[in-house]
Amino acid sequence: MSDVPAESAASSRIAQALRDDILKGLIAPGQRLRQEDIAERLGGSRLPVREALRILAAEGLVQIEPNKGARVPSLDPGEVETLYRMRERLEPLALSESMANLSSADLAEISDIQRRIEQGVDVTEFLILDREFHMATYTGCSDEQLMLSVVRLWNSTQHYRRAFMSLTGPGRAQIVNAEHRLLMEAMDRRDPEDAELYLLGHIRRTRKELVRHPEIFSTGS
User: Fold this and answer.
1) Separation CA 143–CA 122 (nearest Å)
2) Which residue range is the domain that position 189 belongs to?
3) What pLDDT, on the 0 to 100 scale, is given for residue 1?
4) Based on the domain organization, do 16 and 94 belong to the same domain?
5) Cα–Cα distance list, 183 to 121, 123, 171, 195, 221 (Å)
6) How far is CA 100 from CA 23, 60, 107, 147, in A?
7) How far is it, in rounded angstroms, from Cα 194 to Cα 183?
8) CATH number, domain containing residue 201
9) For the chain, percent helix, then strand, then coil, each to nearest 5?
10) pLDDT tens digit string along 143-191?
C-alpha cells in the first residue's frame, strides 16, 4: 500500500519531464519512446514510466501502438489542418465561457504575458509565453471537457507551430503581437463578440499559413 503514492509521484515526475521535452522539441515527431531508456534516463522502474506514457497519451503528446510501444505522433498537413479547424470552433467557445469570469487581475496577468512576448524572445520562449497567453484568456472557462480538448489540440500541434515560427522569423511575431493586442482590447472592453472574431481570425491565419509550407511536414524538423 505504501508504494502506491510513491509510484504515482514517480509517474507524475516522469510525465512532466517527458512533457517538457516534447513541447520544447527535444523529442521530435515520430521518435520512439522506449520504456527502458526513459527509466534509465529519468530514474524509476518501468511501471511508473508506463503510467507516465498513458498520461501523455491522454494529453495527445504520445501515441501508444499495440505491439510497437510509444512514440510522439507525426502528423501530415491534412491532419494538422483538421486540428486547427477544431481549434477555430472550440477556442472561441472557451473564450466566450471565460470572459465573464475574468477579473481585473486576470486581465493584468494577460497584459503582462504579452509585454514579455513583445520584449523579444527566442522561438522556444515565444512558444511558452504564447501558450501561457492563450491559456490565461481561458482561465474563466469552467467547462472541464472543453478545456481538456483545447489543451490536447495545442499539444498535438506544438511541434508544427515551432517549425513554422523558426521558418518565418520576426515578421510572424509582429503579426502575432498585433493580433494579441486586438484580442486584449476586446477583452478589456468586455466585448465577447469581437474577442471571439479576433481569436478565430488569429487561429485561422496560422492554419492557412501552415498549409502553405509543406516543407515543415516533409522534413520532420
Assistant:
1) 33
2) 77-219
3) 43
4) no
5) 21, 22, 19, 5, 31
6) 30, 29, 12, 16
7) 8
8) 1.20.120.530
9) 75, 5, 20
10) 999 999 999 999 988 888 887 787 776 677 888 999 999 999 999 999 9
% of the chain beyond a pLDDT of 70: 94
Which residues are within 8 A (CB) of 103 and not within 5 positions of it... i.e. 6 or more apart?
A: none
Position 205, amino acid:
R
Report how far residue 131's alpha carbon sits from residue 124's, in angstroms, rounded to the nearest whole number: 11
**CA pseudo-torsion sign 69, 218, 168, 90:** negative
Query: C-alpha distances in angstroms, 210 versus 67, 157, 194?
Result: 33, 11, 25
Please give the model's pTM, rounded to 2 decimal places: 0.85
d(Cα 194, Cα 208) in Å, to the nearest integer? 21
Same domain membership, residue 91 and residue 64:
no
The pLDDT, as a whole number, for residue 64 is 92
Instruction: Give yes or no: residues 135 and 32 share one domain.
Output: no
